[in-house]
Amino acid sequence: MISAASKLALRAASRHKPSFNGLRTLSTQSASSSESAVYIKSNKADDASVCNLFPQLTKIVATIGPASEQYDVLSGLVRNGLRIMRLNFSHATVEEVELRVANLRKSRGRTFRDEDGVRDNLRAVLLDTRGPEIRTGKLADDTTGKKKIQLVKDNLVRLHTDNAWKEAGSETDLYVDYPYLARDVDVGSTVLLDDGAVSLTVVRIGEDGILDCVIDNDGNIRSRAGVNLPGCVTDLPAMSEKDKADIYYGISKDVDFIAPSFIQDAESVHEIREYINECIKKQNLPESYKSPLIISKIESMRGLQNFNEILDASDGIMVARGDLGVEIPIHSVTNAQKEIIKACNTVGKPVIVATQMLESMSDNPRPTRAEVADVTNAVYDGADAVMLSGETAKGKYPLETVNTMNQIIREAEHFFEKRPDIVGKNCDLVVSDEADLSNYCMARASVTAAAQHKASAILVHTNSGKLARIISAYRPHVPIIACLQGDDAFKIGRQLILSRGIHPMVLRTEEGSIGLAKQLGFIKEGDDIVLLGPREDKDISMRVLRVH
């Protein structure tokens, strides 16, 4: 017997048989939608206009740097779709962070309201740590930090871990600040310098711990160049001293997410979580304080090998394709990305795809076709968020970049909904905790009801955000409006932003959720919506309503 769901799928497939006319219609729809998606650019500090486009389901994380930290640019990014601001603590100073956080809080997005001097701005902050890393030492006589040496192909260079070589680097001898180097590599292993700019092959490992390496290609390096050991399992600590100082500072600024770099195993995540709790206690924050969520960055061979336990210990995952593409064969990165996204989708945890998504827009106002395909496929794979790095931090076109990414997301989501026969279906969700079974049933029912009634949105009243996250995990094709109240509503709302499709709003006392959703432009009169909220003597009930 064919189930009702299967019949619906068959009918949908029959409506979308490939044809020239069908493709032409789709192309026309795409063109008209892109023409209406004009980005908003304003230099007026008090401009209250907001992006009037329907909110995207897949979120945009954007790194804020010198090109985008000023209020006029940052507020434009917020209006055009930025949901999470990434602060890269590999480079940012305290003064720069203070400026960027202050300007983000002032920026007016869709959920911005200014009533009686109170401003609501539900945009989140993600602190990205530098992480433990391996570097070369200082070059000899490098007094300015700008000295370079040339490494010549087929020449021999020796790698030392003895501190006597720490400031004596040359074309023939380099210091590496990883004491277990000789233990963790083998003859034939590759050592990459400066993000892969120079490749070395190990030809001999001496009993004294010195590595003899053949230089594989010509290249220049400076003092303290990064070192990668692709395919090798390393024994790096969970946090450097700088990471600890940055996390402590981030908690004092009430950041919403912490993305620790080079996570190797679950124990690293537990150690970071314990340290976060210590910081909260040291800062005398209340016991009810909502600690930042941990978004573990997967960017090493060991991180991939231990991925399942890392996922279990983390609140979310970032596919950090930059270092990952150096640590594993570059042609394997896309496969790893797909496996990571599917695993996260299966357990309902958010996942960010990062690095070089629209890299060419750092210098050009339009992306390459390959970059558009990259973002599109991340949406099809099921990413909760896609991330911009140098494009918005130091690029020439930060506003255009965010707007372009928003349009790509919108087109991909439209196609995903209309052509499931081509893009495929979402993976089955695993109930992680039997105690939440009723929430999973309610969430799935709400998504089914939204599809059957062609609802414009799902409104869910939630104190903890848990039910909204579970609904998100079922991947509805409409926005999930999380209606929040209480002392922690703003922090919970900012942390919900990362999950696909969730758009939080904070309700004032006795304020109606439907009225506020209309005011903020999420829904309009005549729309059908699915409402999950308390009713009479029930904790929560589900209703399908028409907006009046």
Unreliable parts: 1-40, 42-52
What Rg do the Cα atoms give? 25 Å
Number of helices: 19
Instruction: For the record, give the distance between the C-alpha atoms at the N and C termini, rounded to a whole number.
Output: 41 Å
Beta-strand share of residues: 15-25%
Mean pLDDT score, rounded?
87
Q: Order of strands side by side in the largest beta sheet?
A: 1-2-5-14-15-16-17-18
What report would you give on this structure?
With 548 residues, the protein is α/β, with parallel strands linked by helices. The protein has 19 helices and 23 strands. Strand 22 and strand 23 (538-546) form a beta hairpin. Helix 16 packs across helix 17. It is elongated and about 75 Å long. The two termini are 41 Å apart.
List the main descriptive attributes of the protein structure presented here.
36% helix, six-stranded mixed β-sheet, eight-stranded parallel β-barrel, 23 strands, 548 residues, alpha/beta
Q: What's the helix and strand layout?
A:
Blueprint: H1 4-15, H2 20-36, E1 59-63, H3 71-79, E2 82-88, H4 94-106, E3 113-115, E4 118-120, E5 124-128, E6 148-151, E7 156-160, E8 173-175, H5 181-184, E9 190-193, E10 198-205, E11 211-215, E12 219-222, E13 227-228, H6 241-252, E14 257-259, H7 266-282, E15 293-298, H8 301-305, H9 307-313, E16 316-320, H10 321-327, H11 333-347, E17 351-354, H12 369-381, E18 385-388, H13 390-393, H14 398-418, H15 420-423, H16 437-452, E19 457-461, H17 466-473, E20 480-484, H18 489-496, E21 502-506, H19 513-519, E22 528-535, E23 538-546
Parallel strand pairs: 1-2, 1-18, 2-5, 5-14, 7-8, 14-15, 15-16, 16-17, 17-18, 19-20, 19-22, 20-21
Antiparallel strand pairs: 3-4, 6-12, 7-11, 9-10, 9-13, 10-11, 22-23
